[in-house]
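Action item from last week, closing it out:
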Amino acid sequence: MRNHTIVCGYGYHGRKIVAALEEAGIPHVIIDLEAEEERENLIRGDAKDEEVLLRAGIKEAKEILIAVSNDVDTVFIALLARNLNPNLRIVAKADRLASMKKIYLAGANKVISPYVIGGRLLARAVAKPIVAEFFQRVTIAEDLEVAQVGIGEDSKLAGKRIKDMDLASRGIAILAVYRAGELVPNPPAEFQVEAGDHLIVLGSSEEIMKLRGRHS
């Protein structure tokens, strides 16, 4: 397997990650020492063990998602993964705010703290209740999602302006465009999409799936 995703930890957050990867059709391998269910793509082992990461194909992997329950272990896995594959994209969960800087220093590209996100949502619920309701609806609704859609070289959207895409008629809104490491929020109607861009869109799961199939 090449250009795949490795998921370290198959607890609550790990299972959510795997479900999202499966829905998107992204090839992946799971590493977990105590997973209760049996899966063909599950490697039973400790992600802090170099041999286990090698068995998961870390040198050929595109990214690793670290969702273990201990921040110290997360730091160690990030260090080991970065050493084994310098080009690997590393995304990690941090249980403590104080750990985020250490995980970044260990080589992570992105560190996410569910507790920080939860705290911000609670703050919004007090200060901006309608905004909070919107985020909650997008998060839990099965018929609505915020998604990333890549624009390939052969995409019919490549070279088109946003106003010429006619996505609004299908209930899809473009929230932002990610291009060459830069995020362009709320792009204007005259903005021209190019191959290699990633659209951040809001819409129904069904329409987003159709968009991916036809244009990504």
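Closing note: Strands lie at 5-8, 28-32, 42-44, 63-66, 89-93, 110-112, 145-150, 173-179, 182-185, 198-203.
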